[in-house]
Amino acid sequence: MPKEPPVAVVRLENRPYGGYHNPHRADDDGFITSVGRGTPGGDYLRHYWHPFLLVSELKDLPIPVRLLGEDLVVFRDGSGRYGLLHRQCIHRGASLEYGIVAERGIRCSYHGWHFDVDGKVLDTPGGATLQHDQGEILPGRV
């Protein structure tokens, strides 16, 4: 008669901070815990305001943040308006955390595309043409 393989015995730690050594469950409930764009939990949370930064923390430079699984950049333009855009520029993907804050919006430091605080393209220097009309909100904004 063949021998049965030994059964793995999991012993739960019963001491202070012993939970660290306990086995982790692999069956997370992604329906609730996933907060990325297009997930049920993420779509639900995007209906509400989320305080994530104090106004006193926002100075002259843009600040990169990660909210609900998305890389964003928050800034205050020269006229005092607040903007929250995707971190990558929609033109070539350069990071807007290194952008130049202008009187109205932010300018990409790589090719100089100028975005308003709500994501509208205000200016495309160097004769760049858009397939969209300038001033239209492009899909890359939050």
Give a structural overview.
This protein has 142 residues and is mostly beta strands. 7% of the residues lie in helices and 18% in strands. It contains two helices and seven strands. The strands form two sheets. It has a four-stranded antiparallel beta sheet with strand order 4-5-6-7, with no helix packed on it. Strands 1-2-3 form a three-stranded antiparallel beta sheet, with no helix packed on it. A hairpin with a 5-residue loop joins β2 and β3. The termini are far apart.
Describe the secondary structure blueprint for this structure.
Elements: H1 30-33, H2 40-45, E1 63-67, E2 70-76, E3 82-86, E4 100-101, E5 106-107, E6 114-115, E7 121-123
Antiparallel strand pairs: 1-2, 2-3, 4-5, 5-6, 6-7
Q: Please estimate the helix content.
A: under 10%
> What is the mean pLDDT?
81
Summed up, the helix count is 2
Strand order, main sheet: write it out: 4-5-6-7
Distance between the termini: 66 Å
Q: List the secondary-structure elements in sequence, H or E.
A: HHEEEEEEE
DSSP E strands, number = 7
Q: What is the radius of gyration computed over CA atoms, rounded to a whole number of angstroms?
A: 23 Å
Globally, the shape reads elongated
- Biggest sheet layout: 4 strands, antiparallel
Strand content: 15-25%
Low-confidence stretches: 132-142
Alpha-beta classification: mainly beta
Annotation keywords:
142 residues; four-stranded antiparallel beta sheet; three-stranded antiparallel beta sheet; 2 helices
